[in-house]
Amino acid sequence: MYYSIKTRTDKEVGGVFPQVSCLNQQLAHSIQSNSFINADSDLLYKLEPKAKLTNVLSQAEISALGFLIDEKTKGIVKGFDIVPHNYNQATVKDNNGREYHYSWLHLGTKLEDLQWLDYQNSSFYVKEYGFRKEDISIKSYQDYEQKSIEVGDMAVILIEKIKIKPQYRINADMFTLPLLTRNIFISQSLKIALDENSITGISTEEAFE
Q1: With 175 labelled, which of 43, 114, 116, 117 sits at a CA distance of 20 to 30 A?
Q2: In terms of domain of life, where is this protein from (predicted)?
Q3: What is the dihedral of CA 27, 183, 146, 161, to 10 degrees?
C-alpha cells in the first residue's frame, strides 16, 4: 500500500495555512520543480502568530514539490529510499525570537523516468480553467505528451487512479508523479516510521496498491 502525504491545516498546526511566511522570497521563488539549487544562504521563515511549531511546516512560497522538515524528520527520511532530491537549509523563527533549524526537502522526478506507471490501466481526466472537463485515455508517456498539446494551454491532464505495471515495483519510499498530480506519496514502511516517531504537521491517507 502507498499513501499520499500532505501538511495539515487543522487544530494540530493552529488551524492556519501556511504556518510560516518566508522572509527572503526571492530565494524561495528560485527553487524550481525541474532543477536543484545549492543556495549560499538559508531560507528564512517566520512562524505565523496563531501557528504551532510542528516537525513538518506548511509554506506557500516554494511551488516545487517537497516539505519543510525539522532535523528529527530529516533523520528519519534519510534512512529510506527517496527519489532524486535535495536539501536546502532553512531557519524558522518563532514569535519569541527563538530560531529552529529546518530543511526544505526538494523532490525532483521526471515523469518520463517512471517506468512502473501503468498508463493504460490508470485513469486520467482533463482540467480546464480550474474545472474538470472530461475523462481521457492515456496509453504511454509519449501519448501523454501529445494529448497535453491537443488539450491546449489552458488545460492540464491529471491522474485520478494510479496503477502499477504487474512486472514492476516502485523502488522509492517517497516519490511524486510530476505534472499529473501535486500529491506526494510514501511507502507503508515510511508511514510506519513517521507514525512511530510521532511526526507532527502531516496527515496521510491510502492512495493505491
Answers
A1: 43
A2: Bacteria
A3: 180
What's the total number of domains in the chain? 2
- Residue 204, in any domain of the structure: yes
At 163-209, the pLDDT tens digits run 999 988 898 999 999 889 999 999 999 999 999 999 999 999 999 98
From the list 184, 209, 179, the residue with the least C-alpha distance to 112 is 179
Range of the domain at 155: 118-161
3-state secondary structure of 81: coil
b/e sequence 25-34, b meaning 16+ C-beta within 10 Å:
eebbeebebe
Based on the fold, state whether residues 71 and 146 are members of the same structural domain: no
C-alpha cell at 132: 474538470
Q: Per the domain annotation, does 79 fall within a domain?
A: yes
Q: What is the pTM of this model?
A: 0.91
Question: Does residue 63 fall inside a structural domain?
Answer: yes
Domain shared by 148 and 200, yes or no: no
Tell me how far apart the alpha carbons of residues 123 and 106 are, in angstroms, rounded to a whole number.
27
- DSSP codes joined into one string, 120-185: TTSEEEEEETTEEEEEE---SHHHHHHHHHHH-TTEEEEEEE--B-TT-----SEEE-TTT-S-EE
